[in-house]
Amino acid sequence: MENQSGKQSLISEDTEITGNIRCSSTIEVKGKLTGDLECASNVVLGETSVVKGNLNVATIAVFGQVTGNISASDKIELKSTARVHGDIKSKRLTVEDGVTFMGKSEVSPSGKSGSVAPPPAAQVEDELEDSDSSDRGKKGLFNK
Amino acid sequence: MARKGSGQVQKTDMVDGFTALRAVRDAHAEAAPSTVQSESIVDAEPQPIGTRLGSTAMPSENRIVCYECGYEFRMTGKVARLACSKCHILLDTGDHVVDSVWTEDLKTVGTIRIVEGGAIQGGVIIANDVVLAGGTISGGRVNAVKCLVLEHHNPFSRDFVTARDLRIAEGVSVATETELTYREVELAGRLSASLKAVERLIIRETGCLVGKVQTPSLVVEDGAGLLAEIDVGVVAEGVEAKTA
Fold first, then answer.
1. Which of the residues B180, B192, B231 would you substitute to probe the A interface, choosing the one with the greatest number of A C-beta atoms within 10 Å?
2. Number of CB atoms found within 10 A of residue A9's CB
3. Which of B218, B225, B229 sits opposite A108 (nearest CB)?
4. pTM of model > 0.90
5. Interface of A with B in 53-112 (CB under 8 A)
6. Cβ separation of A94 and B220 shorter than 8 Å?
7. N or C: which end of chain B has fewer CB within 10 A?
8. Predicted ipTM > 0.90
C-alpha cells in the first residue's frame, strides 16, 4: 500500500501506541492505537487493529475495531469484519454485509452535510392534504 | 412396440404386460451408469439452483403462500394451474393490474399492480407482490405476502396495508413519522423514517435513508446517502417480520 510519493507507514500487529498520530502519507494500522489519528491520505485499519480515538482522514478502509468518531473528506469503507462504535461523517460510504456499527451517520453524496436534510416529505404531505381532508398536515405518507 | 418373429421385426398395435416389463427392464439396464460415472458425479460439486448444467437451464424456484390457508410451499418453474399442497384449492397464478376503483376481493400468488387511476377502496387484496405504481389504497385490506413495492409517491394508510418486505424504487420519496418494521428493505429511492429491518437493509447507490435504522445486516452501495442514527449488527429482540 503506497501513495503517489511512495511513502507508507505501518503499525504492525505487535505494536501498541498511546498518543496521537499525524501523517501525510498512507498508513496501515494492524496493531493497537489509543489516540487520535489525522491523515491527509489513505488509511487502512486491518482486521487485527483496535483503535480508540477519533480519526480524521481522507479515505479509510476499516477491517478492524474502532471506538471513536470517523471523519473522512472523501470516503469511508466499512468492510465485513469492521466493528465501529462512534459517529461517521463523509461524502461517500460503502458498507459490507456483516458490519457492526453503532452511531450516527452523516453521509450525503450531494455534499449537503450537517443536520439531517429535510425530506421532500413536504411534497408528499401536499399530496396527502389533497387526498385526505382530515388531520391535514400531520400525516406522512402512511397517514400516521 | 416391436416383436421379433421369424427373423424380422414386425410392428404391432398390441402391448402386452410382459413386453412392457421387458422394455422397462431394458431401459433401466441401458440407463445404469458405470462406476466411473458414479464417482465423477459424487466428486462433482453441487450446482446451485439456477445455474446451467450443460445446455439446460434449471428452472427457478418460487415460494408460494396459499392465500386461503396460509400454507407455504415451493414450486419449481411455472405452471398454468396450481393447487395448494395442503388445502388443494386451485390458486390464481396470474398477475393483475388495477386501473380503476376496486372494492372486491382479489387474490393471487402473482403480482398486483395498482397503476394510475387505480384505487383500492375495499375488499381483501392478497398477492405475493403488490406494486403501488400511481394508484391509491384508501380502504379494504391489502396484504403483500412477499414484497410491497413503491414506485410512486402515492399516499396509503398502513392500517390497510401489510407486507413482509419493502422496496422503494428510484426517484420515489417516502416520509413517515411512525416506526416501520419490515423483514427486508431495499432503498433505491429516499426514505425518511424510523426503520427496523429484521433481516437486512440494502441502500442502493441512488437510495437515501434519513432518520433511524436498526438492523442486523446493512449494505450500503457507493453513492448512497445515509443520515441516520444507526444500530447495525444487533438483532432486535421481539421484532417480528411484519408491518406495524
1. B192
2. 16
3. B225
4. no
5. 75, 83, 92-110
6. yes
7. N
8. no
